[in-house]
Design a protein that fits this description.
The protein has 177 residues and is mostly helical. Helix content is 63%, strand content 0%. The chain has ten helices and no strands.
């Protein structure tokens, strides 16, 4: 469809592109040069290139967000490596999200002494959650915006439940001692 929009006509100066299928993330900008001969001769290599690590290495938690989790030693989570490991070990891809939620829950619990404080810290992770879901979507290949929106909502819900569960256990342990 972009081909139709990019056709030159005397009365047309511009056209808009609405990416409903995350195609820019999956395939790159439509104006980027592609060696089609190479793609047709090496489709596996092209497919692999689409699924290789993108900008994850450049992603760092902002320092102001990092300062809210001083007790946490490990704050990064390589979604793409975790996904590849899960697939290689014959596990379902959703295990990556489960592990990511666990790490975020521990970060919130380790940096708060109350359930309310830990739950408040979960909201500080909103941008980080969005980033991880985006990376997870890239691993899956074809995902819709509706699916990623649902996944973000589900992630946040499960994160809050897990934080409450872990904090509840810690309170029980402290009262038992």
């Amino acid at each position: 469809m972009i081909g139709r929009g990019s056709r030159r006509l005397p009365q047309k100066k511009t056209f808009g592109i609405i990416d409903l299928g995350n195609n820019t993330d999956r395939f790159g900008e439509w104006t980027a040069p592609i060696d089609w001969k190479h793609v047709f001769e090496n489709p596996e290599a092209y497919h692999e290139m689409l699924n290789t690590k993108t900008s994850y290495e450049a992603h760092q938690m902002p320092s102001d967000m990092r300062s809210k989790f001083p007790a946490s030693r490990e704050i990064s989570f390589d979604v793409q490596s975790a996904h590849q490991s899960a697939i290689e070990n014959g596990q379902k891809a959703k295990i990556v999200i489960r592990d990511s939620i666990r790490q975020h829950a521990l970060m919130c619990v380790d940096n708060s002494s109350t359930v309310a404080g830990a739950l408040e810290l979960t909201t500080e992770l909103d941008k980080e959650i969005d980033w991880r879901i985006k990376q997870y979507g890239k691993c899956l290949g074809k995902v819709t915006k509706n699916y990623t929106d649902w996944l973000k909502e589900d992630y946040r819900s499960k994160l809050k439940k897990l934080v409450q569960k872990i904090m509840g256990r810690r309170v029980l342990i402290k009262t038992a001692v």
